[in-house]
Amino acid sequence: MTWIDTHCHLDAAEFADQADEVARRAEALQVGMIVIPAVERANFSTVRNLAHAHANCSYALGIHPIFVPQAQEADLLFLRESVEAAMADPRFVAIGEIGLDYFVPLLTESAMRAKQEHFYAEQLKIARDFDLPVLLHVRRAQDQILKQLRRIKVPGGIAHAFNGSFQQAQIFIDLGFKLGFGGAMTFTRSLQIRRLASELPIESIVLETDAPDISPAWLHPEKNSPEQLPRIGDVLAELRSMALPDIARITSDNARTVMPRLVALS
Fold this sequence. Notes:
Elements: E1 3-5, H1 19-28, E2 31-37, H2 44-53, E3 57-61, H3 73-86, E4 92-101, H4 105-108, H5 110-130, E5 134-139, H6 142-151, E6 157-160, H7 166-174, E7 177-181, H8 191-199, E8 205-207, H9 229-240, H10 244-258
Helix pairs in contact: 3-5, 9-10
């Protein structure tokens, strides 16, 4: 029984010099693959190096909406060039983390909304051009995210930390996306997220930690870790009245389906 953590910021400062040990402990708990998304140009090499340091790690490249304010147009060209070079790297699996964030006040100002939307659309074009899935940050921006996905066709991806409606979920699924569930699902008060996790087609669900963020109920407010993924999976098994090995197998298969480059790694 092995697990795939489809979204983990193992390079985050919160892990400092512990990232290697965290990856090893996760592997000992049957977390067979951790996908580490980049968030800005400055950490492209960091996520790449981490992925190559551990057999249970892979990486994605992209510019996160929270880092868009300081990003430059040249960073999009650098991303395209980096992706082109990374296509020969078996540990490179997706474009991400990209998307839109209409929750952080700075990012809701009209000029910054426009810049976010520009960076999001241009990164979708890179994913389209290289036939790569995308790892999407979607915060208070479901409809705007979907509008661009209808316009710029990419080969699927993951709506990370999904918290939309059933109707929005179905549109993502119809566009070839899986929906990411993690620590938020473990809180009994998270009624809508738990309902989504319980009732959406199991073939549409992947698991994630978003470590060091979105800690599960038993860990909050301490930092999250990929080591928590099996226990998060256990919550999903309980919600769906399924056997834990089946949850591990199906969610891992779903991750490989939406990120085909994982097949050779996990």
